From TrEMBL:
This is Nucleic acid-binding protein. Residues 5-114 form the PIN domain. It comes from Brunnivagina elsteri CCALA 953. It comes from the Bacteria. It holds the Pfam family PIN.
Amino acid sequence: MDYSYLDSGVLINAFRGVSEISLKATQVLDDSTRTFATSLFVKLETQPKATYNKQLAEVEFYETFFDAVTIWATSLNTIVKIADRIAKVYGLAAMDALHIAAAISINANEFVTTEKTTKPMHRVTEISVVSIAV
């Protein structure tokens, strides 16, 4: 099965729904040909702040996505080992390395992000990094 791992920015922008990038994020989420993968890193970057600020519609939006996820990257030791290697090879920031490593650890086919193609994560060759940045 082909898996799409979405960066946190894709979910955040899809919820906000006010820009061109939001429209692209929504199209990704609405694509019935995609099967979604994620990790607790994405959940940690999206839900706590929305929960703290009592943004109930936003929390519900994220919960709906997480409930629909087919595969979760859960092997922390494997993820950290991969993240350490790719951060060193490609010059990634820690969180970006962890997200991409999580996607790699479950053999996702693509990593969808809102980061521009000039960012270091686009140097990674172990997974297809797809930007919806405008």
